[in-house]
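Q: Second attempt. The first request was missing the SMILES, so the protein and glutamine are both included now.
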Amino acid sequence: MPQPSTEEEERAETGLFGPSAVTAYLEQVVEQLRDERGGAPSSSIPALAEADPERFGVVIATADGHVYEAGSTRDEFSLQSISKAFTYALALHDLGAEAVHAKMDVEPSGDAYNEISLQPGSGRPANPMINAGAIASTWLVPDSDRDLRRDRIREAYSRCAGRDLAISPEVLAQEHDAGDRNRALGYLLASAGIIEGDPTQALEDYFAQCSVLVTCRDLALMGATLANAGTNPLTGEEVFDAGTVSRVLSVMSSCGMYDDAGEWMVRVGLPAKSGVGGGIIAVLPGELAVATFSPALDRHGNSVRGVLACERLSQDLDLHFTHTARVARSTVRASYPIDQSPSLVRRNADAEAVLAEHGTDAVVVELQGDLLFTGTETAIRTVRDVAYDASYVVVDLRRVDVIADYAMPMLARTRQELHAAGRTVVVVAGNPDFGRSFRGDPPLEVFPSRAAAIKWVEDALLEEHGGPECTPSRVKPVESELFSRLDPADARALRVRTVERSWAAGENILRAGQNFAGIHLIVTGDVSMSLRTPSGERVELQVLGPGMSFGELALGTGDKQHATLSAVTDVTARVLSPQTLAELEQEDPGLGLRLWKALARDGFERADQQWRDAAVHASASDW
Ligand SMILES: NC(=O)CC[C@H](N)C(=O)O
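A: Got both inputs this time. The predicted holo structure:
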């Protein structure tokens, strides 16, 4: 079955941009280590002893399924002991950790992989990565009614690799012929009651799993399945549950490289498993897997070039588990007072004055990435710090990918603590689950956009620090912004020429592109002004409230509405219709001229305000 290719591979074949920089790096590593000629292929069976020691491949497969390879990455070789990690996973998956732990411990033995040894006292093998534990793991995998044990094992490996892997009959026959030491282990396990009954079939199935043929690329995808918590990142199929994978990786960390495991964790720092066929997989949980292949082995039975390549990648790419803690510092994307990114609501002069004075009393904290413990701790510390000086905190979760279950109560408690101290936390979240993150009493305000959240906070600040004139629910036309620029007599003369119109919440009032439909003075309710992007996305520009006007800008844009106006709430307005305006020019040209001057001043000020808002919005990133 052909090996599945990824999009990068297909694109790289087109040659448009050439191989990725990651591939180029791996090619450089292969070339620089190719001259390392220490060690020799395993002499345990002819098929291994005859392997070409010059073959050398390195692959990185990311936990989201991107594969980068260099060197001999498509040549097949036998899996050998790397199989142990995956058979152990299958036994855990089938029987559970307790049943498996009754048959083998999880302690590093410090012995060679084929040591004839069981733990004193318990009589269990020290761990599943040495042959004694591995044979016990194989025995634990039950035949299913559909498949023999060895088919179940091979099929599980194939699901991790993303393609159908085969057992080499030649290697299997040679493992069988050379298997007396393993048979001694099998009967020792039976004598200790670890294997119950005849160990023969388990031994044959163990030989079979060692004889499964893989390529370096297959190994990397098998490792990436472990890095991706048990789900194959290319096929999306869950092969093992996350708890099983966590246990397997833990045991690989302490035992996967046999009596070189301690040195390995210091120099490479990744859970790994090697095999005398010349393969190694190393896994950075949640991020990637590295796979290497070169048949020449050191005295521990680990590939010489493979170990050097893993050390090199760990050091060059900072893969060591003690180096990957930086991600927490990137949890906080930005933090700024709301007056640096005011809402889209056009406020009257009184309201603007109050917000200018109190706008720093509310702060936005934008979070991103995964809120695991360190990310959550950083987020909590930041929210508490900003809340020290601010009464309102807007926590923007839209760029957060994951909030760990244990983080939810920590975030909820933080909100309660701030509430008890007179602070209010509101949340911006597209994911409804995230809205639960800060839940508690009083009920949490969750908004789909930051603009809506900031409007809510501004309204709260105006209610606290401004009078009713800041957030009027009703404004007479003669007190509107536009008419207040005129003499009272002119305002009254125009008021009698208006007609009342009303719209229900959600109703369209004016559409972009339609002809001028008159000057509208909002008496009650909120009106949203929006545009459609070329891709059809609706972008809200402003929210207008009582006392404000709309529709007149069409006069400056060729009599066509430049934006869509829709009722956010129920709306009533007084309208100077186009016909009324035409009659006014005939009947009282002086009043008409004074109206146009007031419009011009209002328009220029509004345009200036919009440019200033646009500059602020551009700096405060997208809405
Ligand atoms: N470390 C290894 O890869 C050893 C595998 C070999 N088939 C054995 O069982 O001894």
